[in-house]
Write a structure and sequence with these properties.
FGGY-family carbohydrate kinase, 2 domains, FGGY_N, globular, EC 2.7.1.-, Nucleotidyltransferase, domain 5, alpha+beta, about 40% helix, 16 helices, kinase, kinase activity, single chain
Length: about 475
């Protein structure tokens, strides 16, 4: 039995697989997010307890011995721990927006672009650079008390294995301090963000990913465990996206577009990031948008529609949603890919007293689809496209996505991040698993040519409306007085 652990933003999951990649069992437990005034935090103790709980339940259900376990989890944010891996304060989530004023300043004075040109990472309010700089300015005692500023999975790994010090891997380190050419921290970037005196907090990078043995919490004592990659590249592995040009769209809380590449292009509009992988020279060009299923969830809760009703409502309304259009940028911290605009907000247009709930829902799904197309184009997709995430549970939405994107979708269901974590662990430990078998799609969804042609024109209109909205958001930034 092989176990993958995926420490998500709102749910912690553990999945068991046999040697052929068949998913045997899954255990999950929700974890809370604390939201107040743009601050989004998590209790690290609750997160770790959830990991131990789901692992204990999983290994109790499937009696086969655990060959090895791979760990993945949410990226970005700041997880401050002491020398023993204990929390210094609540974790700052990647969804946190408190550092937007710092980001506004860096956008205006050129720091943002300079960092991108050096690292290939476009910072956003919830990335470690802005959050650490905010803490240094407004909560320096937390940084003084910390031994390391790690990422979610790194905290869990240290606690599970009793490692002497928290470490991370090249994928999590990619934003925003890693030089993708040398695979080491760029001290100039640390200096530009005003964090030189906090340089000691950056965790050592395990390259290749770190390994250890479980000490008996959740997993049997002595179980081999590997740390990483984080959830986006883990999903790419779990979906079989490794050949240059092939892509993955994760339809989850955020909408993440990833394209495998061996190139490094630091020109063009600063957006997204290059995620280094465990294989030197191989990267993922990532456009992890803030928009995603959270946008649809908001519309569903506002209209009183359940997830079970979505497929029927999508089928009842023609393409174009009877003239209703949605720019689905609902996140309070704006958007981060394929452009960075902290002040961008959602817009609904074409709404009248005749507009139905089904119109709003279809228009939202279409808007998310257009955002996905924008991200995939910016990421450089040229090959096949796999899709995973919670959105794949809706067949009607997958058909709509295939039409909006104008290409076939390789749908990969199940715990794809956990699957990728196992494949990464197997490669690290030299365990032979057939990745092709492990990553076979569960379905292929073909686009309808007529609807795809309609949506190609709709996408052009979407981009035009977005340009206007971005200009308005930019005027708001310029109005803050930054120069």
């Amino acid at each position: 039995m092989y176990v993958g652990i995926d420490v998500g933003t709102s749910v912690v999951k553990a999945a068991a697989f046999d040697s052929g990649g068949r998913q045997l069992a899954v255990e999950s437990r929700p974890v809370e997010l604390s939201l107040h005034g743009g601050f989004v935090e998590q209790d690290m103790a609750e997160v770790y307890d959830a990991v131990v709980d789901v692992l204990g339940k999983l290994t109790g259900r499937v009696p086969e011995p655990v060959e090895l376990a791979g760990l993945t989890g949410q990226g970005d944010g700041v997880w401050l721990v002491d020398a023993e891996g204990r929390p210094v304060r609540s974790a700052l989530s990647w969804m946190d927006g408190r550092a937007h004023e710092l980001l506004d300043q860096w956008l205006a004075d050129g720091t943002f672009e300079t960092v991108f040109r050096r690292t290939g990472g476009a910072m956003f309010p919830g990335s470690p650079g802005p959050l650490l700089a905010w803490l240094d300015r407004y909560d320096p005692s937390s940084l003084d008390a910390a031994a390391t500023a790690v990422y979610c999975k790194d905290m869990v790994f240290q606690r599970l294995t009793g490692a002497a010090r928290a470490t991370t891997d090249v994928s999590d380190a990619s934003m925003p301090f890693l030089d993708p050419r040398t695979r080491t921290y760029d001290n100039r970037v640390v200096e530009l963000l005003g964090l030189t005196r906090r340089r000691r907090l950056l965790p050592p990078i395990g390259d290749p990913i770190a390994t250890g043995e479980a000490r008996g919490e959740g997993l049997p004592s002595g179980t081999r465990v590997s740390n990483g990659p984080y959830d986006l590249p883990a999903c790419a592995l779990g979906a079989g996206v490794t050949a240059p040009g092939d892509g993955l769209l994760i339809v989850g809380t955020c909408l993440a577009a990833l394209v495998a590449t061996t190139e490094l292009d630091l020109t063009g509009e600063p957006a997204g990031l290059y995620i280094s992988t465990d294989r030197p020279g191989h990267r993922l060009r990532a456009m992890p948008a803030m928009v995603g299923t959270a946008a649809l969830d908001w519309v569903l809760s506002t209209t009183g529609v359940t997830h079970a009703e979505v497929d029927d409502l999508l089928a009842a309304i023609p393409p174009g949603a009877n003239g209703v259009r949605v720019l689905p940028y609902f996140a309070p911290s704006g958007e981060r890919a394929p452009f960075v605009e902290p002040h961008l907000r959602a817009e609904l247009s074409g709404v009248s007293l005749e507009t139905t709930r089904a119109d709003l829902i279809r228009a939202t799904c279409e808007g998310i689809g257009y955002a996905a197309r924008h991200c995939l184009e910016a990421a450089g997709l040229t090959g096949s496209l796999a899709v995973c995430g919670g959105g794949t549970r809706s067949p009607a939405w997958m058909r709509l996505l295939a039409d909006v994107l104008g290409r076939p979708l390789r749908v990969v269901e199940g715990e794809v991040g956990a699957r990728g974590a196992v494949l990464a662990a197997a490669e690290r430990y030299g365990v032979s698993l057939d990745a092709g078998v492990w990553t076979e799609p569960t379905a292929i969804v073909e686009p309808d040519p007529e609807r795809a042609s309609y949506y190609a024109k709709g996408y052009e209109e979407h981009v035009a409306r977005l340009d206007v909205a971005r200009e308005a958001a930019g005027r708001q930034l310029r109005g803050t007085g930054c120069s």
